[in-house]
Each structure stands twice: as structure tokens, then as C-alpha cells.
Design a protein that fits this description.
Blueprint (H helix, E strand, L loop, with lengths): L10 E5 L2 H15 L9 E5 L2 E6 L2 E6 L6 E2 L1 H6 L6 E4 L4 H5 L4 E2 L3 E4 L8 E6 L5 E7 L3 H6 L4 E8 L3 H9 L1
Parallel strand pairs: 6-9
Antiparallel strand pairs: 1-2, 2-3, 3-4, 4-5, 6-8, 7-11, 9-10, 10-11
Amino acid sequence: MARAGRELKLKGRHRLKEKEARRILEGLKENFGIELEEESLDIARLGEVEVILSRKEPLLFRRPGEVWVPTLYLLLKHPEAKRRVTVDMGGVKAVSGGANVMAPGVVDCYREVKEGDIVWVADERHGRPLAVGVALMDSEKMVRERRGVAVKSLHHVGDRIWEIGAETS
């Protein structure tokens, strides 16, 4: 449900051209190992953010001039996705509430993560997606460091992108 005073209207919704959809899905496969065979994808705006939807469920989003980022809804269906950062249970509440991931809370990381990559964050007990963000360290440093921010959060449970899916499901 939308919080009071927040507008969750998707604007300008239209079908993506097949060629554009194929290009975006190829990037998703290359970067995250997620292979989707969608017959049709829609694109809409939520404020300044573009969102790609399949049957009303948000799959990917991006801010102007940035790369497409998988949503938590997509990652819930594809827990095998690459670029996973696992956090200890002590960090779950903060991360799922939108906080950045601190290096001391990282217990494991997909080995090929480089600084600047889009990553997703999961809890160590259940492996459920909590957030998606930008790696501020490479994978080795993320696991080794005991100080600093490891991942800058872009999308988390309960944010505006999450609420789109909650309202349509």
C-alpha cells in the first residue's frame, strides 16, 4: 500500500519495442545470469525513474542515463542470480529499511564483483533479497574490510518501486 501523501502513479506506460526488450534482457542475462523469455514488456515512469513491467510486476528500473537494475520482485524469482552480497542477520532490519550495507556486516560476496557494479543483497539465513545497490568496493575488499560502506542502496523492501508491485499483486 502507498503511504499517505505519496503518489504511486505510473505515467506514460507503453509497450517496449521487441528489439529494445531483447537488448535489455540480454544485458540482464550477461550481468546477472537471469534468463527471461518475456513475450511483451511495458515501460513506464515513476517520477524520474523508468520501470519495466511484465504483467504489472516491476522487473527492472533505472534513473536517467544509468543502467537497468533488477527489482527485488525479479530477484525473489531468481535467487541464483549473480552478483549477490550476503549480510549477517544483524544487518537485515537496517538494509531492508534502506540503509547502505556496511562492510563489517558482509559475510559473503559473489567473487567477480567490482567497485561500481550493481549488486543485490540477501540475508545469510534465508538468502532472500533485501536490497539492490551499487558496490563501493570489490568483492575481496568487501569481505575483508571491517570499516566503511560496501554497498550504496538503490532499492529496498517498502520503497516506491516495491510498492508498485505490492499494489498490483
